[in-house]
Design a protein that fits this description.
alpha+beta; 6-stranded mixed sheet; 14 strands
């Protein structure tokens, strides 16, 4: 805990979904070589450190002397790539002894890697990593949804204002008290093209994240409902690593009531059919009695349910990306 507090004093550990993190392509450095480097996300996160809770679906030793470990940590929107080596000895040992799949909580540094071909790859270097559980992951998802919605609201106000430069900064300074976020929003609005379309995409991703939590833990946590665009989350975690945002202490309804993510379905309409992905998740859950099940059995059962091969493969990829199932060896599927 003492280490985490020291980390928080230096840089904010932001709550960011993998989807937003991985789509970021603006990088800034302030000062000399030892100055912090930042990844600017589309919602204005000026990210040097981040806080993640997700499912480790894969751990691999990629070092010559067992001194570099790579892991994939999935949240409902995508996957973080995590690397731990000789400069993160505790994290490296933790990953080397981890039994996949497993829930973990991680505070780490955002990193980018640019090979000679010009591509850019984002990753996380862990500074603290510990075992977690499904309940904490679900709370992290909903808290991260709320934090992301607050940033989206600021970005939308900036776009609607039609202002730029010093005028936009003055406009936002009346609404945003967090200087790091204010600077990040200014940079994001200037850099990202078609930001309005990106925001729509992020809203859909947030809705999907909440739906995933509901579908996995519907009988274990309070319901998250979309009612006329107003999102009602479960109880917030007791600890957050981020500073105050505008409206952070307000009820979530006040914060996101103008964000029309999804409307409550008409009660006169027939209930929607289950998506192939959810049917497939139920099939795996039924067939996996503890040691996994074969892909061929899953495919056979899915086809009997009217799901074709292409839909099975696409649905499996989504389930794996969300950390809901994994492939311990080729041709074998296990539920998380």
């Amino acid at each position: 805990m003492e280490k985490i507090e020291k980390i928080m004093e230096r840089e904010i550990a932001w709550r960011i979904f993998a989807h937003e993190f991985n789509m970021s392509n603006l990088f800034v450095s302030e000062g000399d070589e030892r100055a912090p480097n930042y990844i600017i996300t589309p919602t204005g996160v000026k990210c040097n450190r981040l806080f993640i809770i997700g499912v480790v679906t894969e751990v691999e030793n990629i070092g010559k002397d067992n001194n570099l470990w790579r892991a994939r940590i999935a949240d409902p929107t995508g996957v973080f790539s995590v690397y731990a080596g000789q400069y993160q000895p505790e994290a490296a040992i933790f990953l080397s002894e981890l039994h996949v799949p497993a829930y973990v909580a991680l505070v780490g540094k955002a990193r980018k890697y640019e090979p000679e071909d010009g591509a850019v790859y984002l990753s996380v270097r862990p500074e603290e990593i510990n075992a977690s559980d499904e309940k904490q992951r679900d709370r992290w998802v909903l808290e991260t949804v709320e934090r992301t919605l607050e940033r989206i609201n600021i970005i939308e106000e900036a776009l609607k204002s039609g202002l730029s430069g010093s005028e936009l900064q003055e406009f936002l300074s009346k609404k945003v008290t967090n200087i790091a976020l204010l600077n990040g929003v200014m940079l994001a609005v200037k850099h990202y093209k078609n930001l309005d379309k990106t925001i729509i995409d992020l809203k859909k991703t947030l809705a999907h994240a909440v739906d995933t939590v509901n579908s996995v833990t519907a009988n274990k946590i309070n319901t998250v409902a979309f009612d006329s665009g107003i999102m009602k989350p479960i109880q917030k975690p007791e600890i957050t690593t981020e500073p105050d945002f505008p409206g952070k202490n307000k009820d979530i309804n006040e914060t996101v009531e103008d964000l029309q993510i999804s409307a409550k379905p008409d009660t006169n309409e027939a209930p929607p059919e289950l998506e192939p992905k959810e049917i497939l998740a139920a099939i795996i859950d039924e067939l996996d009695t503890g040691k996994g099940t074969s892909f061929s059995k899953v495919l056979e059962t899915a086809q009997k349910a009217g799901i074709d091969l292409q839909s099975v493969e696409l649905s499996l990829k989504e389930l794996m990306d969300e950390g809901r199932c994994y492939e311990p060896k080729l041709g074998v599927l296990r539920k998380v």
